[in-house]
Request: fold
Amino acid sequence: MTVTIAANAAPRPVPLPIPRPIPLAEIAPWAVFAALVAVILLYFVSTEQGAFALFKGMLVHEYVHDGRHLLGFPCH
Ligand SMILES: [Zn+2]
Reply:
């Protein structure tokens, strides 16, 4: 038995399985964690200076200084 294949035959598309949606109960803890990390980072960029500083010195302030100006927080 011989099989003949046409020269211009395109491969047939294979349907991909549709992924199921992620349940909210699985996303919620990660969303809370991401929000907590974002708030902590926002604190260091926006408020870590002067009387509100958690760490002595200007190391954190200088490290996030460009981000502070980029986001429009008052600085100097
Ligand atoms: Zn500045």
Observations:
- Residues 65, 69, 75-76 surround zinc ion (CB under 6 Å).
- The mean pLDDT is 86.
